Amino acid sequence: MSRLTSFTNRNTLLDNEERRTIVRNDVREIHHETVHYREAGNVYLRETGRCPRFRFPWWLWLLLALGLLALLGLTLGLGLGLGLKQTAPLQRCTRNNCAANSQCINNRCECDTGYYFDYGTQACTLYRQIGMSCTTSDTSQQCITNAYCSTNGVCICSSGYYLDLSSGNCLALLPRYTPCANDDQCQTPFVCKIFLCDCNQTSWYDSGTNTCKRLGLQNDPCSFTSQCISTANCSLVTCQCPSDHYFDDQSDECITKQFIGRTCTYSYQCISLANCTSVSPFSQQCECISSYYYNTTNGQCVPQLSYGTTCLSTYACLNNLICLAGSPTNFTCECLSNQYYLSSNSTCISIGTYNDSCNSLPLGRPCNTRVGLNCSLSSSTCQCSTTDYWNTNSSMCTALLFPGQNCSALTQCINASYCSSLTSICTCNTGYYYNSLSLGMCVPTQAYGTSCTSNYQCNTGIICYNGLCGCNTTVNYYNGSQCTSLVTINQYCLSSVYGPVCDQVNSALICYANNTCGCQTGYYWSGTKCLILIPVGYPCTSDTQCIANSSCSSLTCTCLSTYYYNTATATCSLLLAYAQSCSSTTQCQTGMICTAINSTLSECLCSSTMYFSASSCVSKVTYSQTCSVLIQCDDTLGLVNRVQSHPTV
């Protein structure tokens, strides 16, 4: 048990061997065996047999804890405590206290790989991938490497790069002969062809300019065959299709030439020594040229076989030779039994056939009349009659084809006709028509005024009208070469036979001396034709419709004010002057009346209140008005003319 002793004297000195610790006004003394301390003015002594224990003050523990927290904050980069504030990107640093997603490199905070410095947020931000939105006004590199922010506000790969879908990165475009997956990965102008970047199928690579150039077509210049289109060869510095091909300018290809019997359009499409021949009006096919036949063994047109040559079929023999059996196993080109072989022209000569000479042999050479041939005196050759043509298919004379029948050559049609290349039908020549009823031939078309039954019988420009070649006179006139429309009101005309002629039938127009079409006297133009002028008293719509010296007043034809309607002549006559004979006052001028002079005569005179002066009736003066002669005074009032006139009252 400890024993405490209180000391009353506060200033008593402690033992020299004691250690002292003073905090504020308290003193703790520690000895190996005895502890003396003072508190509140008293000194206490505690004795113990245990070793003395050292105690830390509470504030020391607090300081130690704060130090540990500061060290932890520095380690974790949290910036807690003194001296641990984070450094912004692009700012100078001395230790790794940079902001998130950045680190201190060469004494400056740099954004980590895959991040960029956003000036708006002042922080390191993850790069935007291709297709993500971005801000064009931000000058910082927002998009991944080799990409930029387009004007549309979207990250896209830069020129010369493509988007690698597997990595999401923009990779450099691939050069020629580099493995690829699609065209977008190749440099311009290459495409991905068989998984390698190369020129497309229609071009070749020019190493000098590193460009792809169009493959040369037929006759285009070249240096190598690889510069020409497929199948073509570079021959004498130009691209040429092989001899068994032709160039098709529609597909720009070399196409294999057609064999014999195949359909064609042009001869160059056929194999060598063959032409494109019409076999019907609507069909053409390749056929070997004359003196050649188609050898099925080598697929070529070869020269026909001469006399005595081994053959397999007659079409292989030259001219009119036929393939005859000389023995059971040997066939040769021979002449028929009624023919002989003329070596000078390599042909079998017998009875003369078409175009054969018929007077070169002794006693003359007869023509084969069984096929319709006769010896022409003018040419000394076997010819068909003028009504036949030589049919090469049947080897006999055949009646000439009439217009409307199918044909294949000009010589097949009757005289004055031809085989139309468009329709392959016999057609009469221009200026001819087919007279099938009487002559059965093409005859000249008929001139103007010649009798006819159909329009096609007349010359061009005229028709068959009323049994004569001419014009429909109700709408046309003949101008000397063709029918022309009649001219109408106010148009130019001539009185000659060939006009221009006015439309007299439909419009009643005539040609006046001034060479202009107009209505004849007593007619007016209604807009389509001439009509008789409307007499006085009948309805009208315009002045031009009314007879002379009248006008359309209140929709009725009325004589003009200085005219009266003369029933005897049905015209508007000029009003009668003073003293002219009359039958009605309506015939007299204004102010006059038709006055009977005797039983047989009436004249236009002034009324009793008027007098005649200077070609008109003037009212008489009354009382006290000025007058010069007695006639001026109104005698009905008994007035007289005084010598001295009086002024008017």
From TrEMBL:
Lipoprotein is among the record's keywords: no
SMART domains (alphabetical): EGF
TM annotation in the entry: 58-84
Record keywords, A-Z: Membrane, Transmembrane, Transmembrane helix
Matches recorded under InterPro entries: EGF, Growth_fac_rcpt_cys_sf
Residue ranges occupied by any EGF-like domain in the UniProt entry: 92-125, 133-171, 211-255, 310-349, 406-443, 529-573, 581-618
Superkingdom of this protein's organism: Eukaryota
Identification of the protein by name: EGF-like domain-containing protein
Source organism of this protein record: Didymodactylos carnosus
